[in-house]
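To whoever is on call:

I kicked off a structure prediction for a single chain this morning and the downstream step that reads the tokens threw a length-mismatch warning. I double-checked the sequence; it's 108 residues and nothing unusual in it as far as I can see. Pasting both halves so you can look.
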Amino acid sequence: MGNANTGAGWGGKTNATGDRLKETCAAAFEDLRRCKAELNLGENERYSIKGYNGECDTSEYQLKRCLAFAVDPVNARILYDSSRPRERRLQANKELQKAIADSGVHRH
């Protein structure tokens, strides 16, 4: 069983920010790893279009939310506040996606 803090199995080269995110979101990474294992999937394996019924959706959501708040709390608050204008939430999501990608944390 891999340690979620090491990033083993989550692909790509990591930097200090990526390592910090993996530590901050270790429980969320582990929850998703466990969920995918129950579906006989490795950490980097994609879900089958046929036969996947959303079993790991909550785990995926919690991990994305954790990463968003860890990398950019201001934009994360905007994105997850449904009372904010749609355009501003879309912009916050775009900025968060870039920040997470730039962090060195790569997920499949």
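Update from on-call: the warning came from a stale cache, not from the record. Cleared it. Sanity check on the structure: Residues 1-14 have pLDDT under 50 and may be disordered.
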